[in-house]
Every structure is written in C-alpha cells, then in structure tokens.
Amino acid sequence: MIQLHDLQFEPFISEAEIEEAIAKVASQLNADYKDENPVFLGVLNGAFMFASDVIKRFEGDCEVSFVKLGSYEGTSTTGAVKTLLGLNQQLKERRVIIIEDIVDTGNTLEEINKILKKEGVADYQVATLFFKPEAYKKEFNIKYAGLEIPNKFIVGYGLDYDGLGRNLTKVYKRKE
Ligand SMILES: O=P(O)(O)OC[C@H]1O[C@H](OP(=O)(O)OP(=O)(O)O)[C@H](O)[C@@H]1O
Ligand SMILES: Nc1nc2[nH]cnc2c(=O)[nH]1
To answer: What is the distance between the alpha carbons of residues 94 and 132, in angstroms, rounded to a whole number?
Structure first.
C-alpha cells in the first residue's frame, strides 16, 4: 500500500505486465509502420514514460513530437481539455501515431482529433498503454492498446494523483 496526498493506493499492475504490454504495442507498431517514417506524437505529461519505452523499441526511421494537454483534477476529469503546449511541427501529409499513457473518457483524444484534422495529416492512430473501455464514450477506434483495465483511478508509470506518483514503476489503484 502507498499513500499519495490524502489517498491510499494498492498494487494493481506489475512491472512485468507493463513490460509485456509495451512489447505487444511496439511489435504491432513495427509491423505496421517500420517503413513509413511516422511521427510519434506524445501527449504530456502522463505519456512521457510510455513514449520513451515504446519509441525505443521502434525499428524504422521516425520523428518524435509532443503536445501538452490537461483535463484531470484530483481523481476525475473536469470535462474541459486545455491545450497547454500546442504543436510545434508541421504534420501535413505525415502518418501520425498519438502516444497516450491512458485513454479514459476520450475527451483528450477528441481535442487532439481537432488539432490533427486542421493540420491535414495523412492519417493517424492511437497507441495507448492503458485503455478503460467502460469509460470510453467516443467513436474513434483505439487501434493499439497495451492493457484494457476496469474503470478505476490508477497512478504510476507516468500517471499522477495531483502531481504525485508519476515516477512509480508499477501501477497502483485507488483503495476502495
Ligand atoms: O480520456 P480522458 O478522460 O481524456 O483521459 C486521458 C487523459 O488523462 C490524463 O491526462 P491529464 O489530463 O491527467 O493530464 P496529465 O497527462 O498532465 O496528467 C492522461 O494522460 C490522458 O491524456
Ligand atoms: N492518474 C490518472 N489519470 C487519468 N486520466 C484518465 N484516467 C486516469 C486515471 O485512471 N489515472
């Protein structure tokens, strides 16, 4: 059990399970994009760790870029996604892979969809380490998902509770 601010969290996903999920997504991305020179577009802050680990395993040429969006306060979404740092690279006619730590309601993705449509990208897909199918309310297909998880609040491996927990190498869930 660990404590972050006022909440307790219990172990939920081990390092080995995380490794396996990363390897699965990396092998799918290698199969689909190895000769495509894609742009990996990481969504800060949460995706920094997954982006690093999955992109390291990519075997072709690629470029890496980041945007910073935020909508979570405490343990729930505010529903309003703020763009805190926008795109700083031309993506016209490029194949883009959005790199997310987690897809939950899909609100963040919807905001990125808007950004990418304006850019005139060739196409884009999402690669996320964690996916909550019960919470996801949008149409866009999540093509690459490392692990499907229940609708619980988690921390670790990039994910925070009010700023804490991003450095944890395992994933924990809120104690009920
Ligand atoms: O599908 P959604 O309900 O939109 O949730 C997913 C988003 O929530 C988290 O970001 P957050 O807003 O907590 O910002 P952070 O990455 O800086 O922690 C996570 O990194 C995803 O980007
Ligand atoms: N830390 C954290 N951020 C999230 N953003 C969307 N879902 C989650 C979650 O379960 N945990």
So the answer is: 28
Whether the pTM exceeds 0.80: the reply is yes
Structural domains of the chain in order of their starting residue, each with its CATH number? 7-75+83-174 (3.40.50.2020)
Instruction: Please give the sequence-ordered ranges of beta strands (E in DSSP) within the chain, or none if there are none.
Output: 2-4, 7-13, 39-44, 63-73, 76-85, 95-103, 123-131, 144-148, 154-155, 171-174
By most ligand atoms within 8 Å of CB, the mutation choice from 152, 159, 173 for ligand 2 is 159
Q: CB neighbours of 165 closer than 8 A, spacing ≥ 6?
A: 4, 9, 155, 156, 159, 172
DSSP 1: -
Give CA–CA dist 108/81, Å, rounded. 6
Tokens of 165: 């927990």
pLDDT digits over 53-86, tens only? 999 999 999 999 999 988 878 888 888 888 888 7
Complex prediction ipTM: 0.98
> What CA–CA distance (Å, rounded) separates 127 from 26?
9
Q: 156: CA distance to ligand 1 center in Å?
A: 13
Rounded distance between C-alpha atoms, residue 109 and residue 124, angstroms = 11
